[in-house]
Here is the input.
Amino acid sequence: MAAQARMGGARGSSGAVVLALVLLCVLLHGEFAESAVYTVGDRGGWSFNTANWPKGKRFRAGDVLVFKYDPKAHNVVPVSAAGYSSCSAPRGVRALTTGNDRVTLKRGVNYFICSFPGHCQAGMKVAVTAA
Here is the structure.
């Protein structure tokens, strides 16, 4: 009888572990399912005068920005606030160059510029704040 009680207790605890794992999977899946995907510049894509594109939109950490552009004419470079203001990319930073780049937003302000000569200065830059 004592052995049966011990076995029943073992079954109960393994059931609780399974339930906890299922709940964890549901919670993780729910958080990913809530992430939104935004095309920078909407239909016009990543181009000049996209600095105002984020206005009126609510971004969250984990949301994805898609930069669509002609890779022969533009690129995307993640930069700091200083790089955004000065339109300069730090040495060693790798530009995104596929023409269909996906970037997951981090909490806070995320800054991007085009590093082709004169493009950032002409308005090809965007700052997106993610809550």
